[in-house]
Design a protein that fits this description.
The chain is α+β, with helices and mostly antiparallel strands. It has two domains: 218 residues, FAD/NAD(P)-binding domain (3-Layer(bba) Sandwich); 180 residues, D-Amino Acid Oxidase, subunit A, domain 2 (D-Amino Acid Oxidase, Chain A, domain 2), CATH 3.30.9. The chain contains ten helices and 22 strands. An eight-stranded mixed sheet has the order 6-7-5-15-18-19-14-20. Strands 9-2-1-13-22-21 form a six-stranded mixed sheet.
């Protein structure tokens, strides 16, 4: 890449900010412009669960997120432990069924290096006394915990600005390519001429891609979380991030079941719910979420509340932490609800690399793991932009052209778990 190239990064979420940082860290003589209609880190990134784990069912994802965790550790070593929180506070998957494979049955090579499996009822109760006594299995990820995504993102943004990053607030209305240059047109009626474009717009990846005449094979689902106080101190402050891996029917009373069955609007409450309900202690109390909404949706800037979401999650959570039933009919306040999009490919691998339009790159589709993978994603995207020849072995699995690679397509067809619980 020649000196003084101008690169527009569309999207100031954690992936876009990380890409800007690693670009400028490698090449301070290029001009990087970060464009977003909102403040950096304020949309999907602000809805993050703020967790990390280095175990995934697929080797490529393990290496990818493992590299990102290492990069975050290097940032803390360089800028100090106070630059952003990164604590190995634990990450447990639990089940009432000792035979539940949790991460699927395939591709388990080296899993013992990452996981510790506990099936002793006595050990489970001694170590996790808040869990239901019938829990038969706990799978602990050894290298896992929590991250402060705001402090991490602000560190990357601050350091990138020191290296010359230009921040532009505005909505991108259109893009034009003429010869080898791009014109980025904003709602302010101003335009910016650049040499390269990075699409890092999270759920709006295809909004920008459409301006170039192509689309990514992605989908968006709106996923919700909420935070409530814990006045009864049911959840210990040192409890690991805990994910219930079992499907379940909610334990409604006979009267409730009859009422829901009689009303089409509420009949969905009688359906079987998927695994993946998760709980995490917070300073404010407890953070809970459950990605049971799988309907694909077109992303919007404003999200609507969802009736009964906290009640449903607390009902499901009391299945494995029985004491939480005390909050089902008397939810502590203040109740803080929020929602963000999971933008994902079918196999739940990210999209990172150059696209079919020369000079246009993408970093996105980081559904459920954006915070923990952002550093590796940003660095990999920066390497593509800078024309680096030596890329990590997982790069080809995440490149947009992977769907044209027969060997990779075969690997994707054999997946029995996407790691998203």
């Amino acid at each position: 890449m020649s000196a003084n190239n101008t690169i527009a990064i569309c999207g100031a979420g954690i992936a876009g900010v990380a890409t800007a940082y690693f670009l400028l860290k490698e090449r301070k003589d290029c001009k990087v412009i970060l464009i977003d209609k909102n403040q950096p880190l304020s949309f999907t990134t602000s809805k993050s669960g703020e967790n990390f784990r280095d175990y995934w069912p697929e080797k490529n994802m393990r290496q990818f997120v493992g590299d990102s965790i290492q990069l975050m550790k290097e940032l803390r070593a360089e800028f100090g432990d106070d630059s952003f929180e990164m604590k190995n506070s634990g990450y447990n998957f639990i089940s009432h069924d000792a035979d539940n494979p949790i991460f699927g049955s395939g591709n388990k090579d080296g899993s013992a290096d990452y996981l510790e499996e506990i099936t002793s009822a006595q050990v489970i109760q001694n170590n996790f006394p808040y869990l239901d006594k019938k829990i038969e299995k706990v799978v602990k990820i050894k290298n896992a915990g929590k991250i402060d995504v705001y402090d991490l993102g602000n560190l990357l943004l601050r350091e990138a600005k020191k290296m010359g990053l230009v921040q532009v607030e505005g909505e991108i209305l259109n893009m034009e390519k003429k010869d080898s240059k791009f014109k980025v047109m904003l709602d302010s009626k101003k335009s910016i001429d650049v040499d390269k474009v990075v699409i890092a717009t999270g759920p709006f990846l295809n909004t920008i891609a459409k301006m170039f005449g192509f689309q990514f094979s992605i989908s968006n689902t709106l996923q919700r979380k909420f935070i409530i106080p814990d006045p009864n101190n049911i959840i210990p402050k040192n409890m690991p991030f805990t994910i219930y891996a079992d499907t379940q029917f909610l334990n409604w009373s006979t009267e409730e079941k009859e009422f829901f069955a009689s009303d089409k609007k509420y009949r969905w409450l009688l359906n079987k719910f998927p695994g993946g309900l998760h709980i995490k202690p917070e300073t404010e109390g407890i953070k809970l979420g459950w990605a049971f909404q799988t309907e694909k949706s077109s992303p919007t800037w404003e999200t609507q509340n969802f009736d009964f979401f906290p009640q449903v999650v607390l009902k499901g959570a009391s299945r494995f932490i029985p004491e939480l039933s005390r909050y089902e009919n008397n939810i502590p306040t203040p109740l803080i609800e929020y929602a963000g999009y999971y933008t994902r490919t079918n196999e739940n691998w990210p999209l990172i690399g150059n696209t079919e339009v020369d000079g246009v790159f993408v970093v996105g589709a980081l559904a459920g793991y954006g915070t923990m993978s952002a550093c590796a994603a940003g660095k990999l995207c920066a390497n593509y932009i800078l024309g680096e020849n030596e890329l990590p072995t997982y790069a080809k699995y995440f490149h947009p052209s992977r769907y044209e690679n027969e060997a990779i397509r075969k690997e994707m067809s054999l997946l029995d778990s996407d790691g998203q619980l």
